[in-house]
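Section 3.1: Structural characterization of target chains.
Under the original work plan, the team committed to producing a structural model for every single-chain target entering the pipeline before any wet-lab resources were allocated. The record below documents one such target. The sequence was received from the expression subgroup and is listed exactly as submitted; it comprises 82 residues.
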Amino acid sequence: MFFSRLKSELLREPTPDTGIEDALAEVHQQMELVRSRFAWERDADLIEACIYEMEALDARQRHLLTLARKQNLRAARLRCLE
């Protein structure tokens, strides 16, 4: 159940009302939370889950940056990259 919800969130395309900038900021925030959990986790299975989640978030960020490039968005307009 967790992974299906995570998958649907990660595969969700940015909509005009959220925009790429907001989606990138959300991915950045999620990555910070996962890194924090990873730093404190002791269970091997949960550490592995954190690693997979970080990989998924990296892939989502790459996808969003590709969309941003296609729309000619630049880092100056993307506050989440500051």
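The mean pLDDT is 81.
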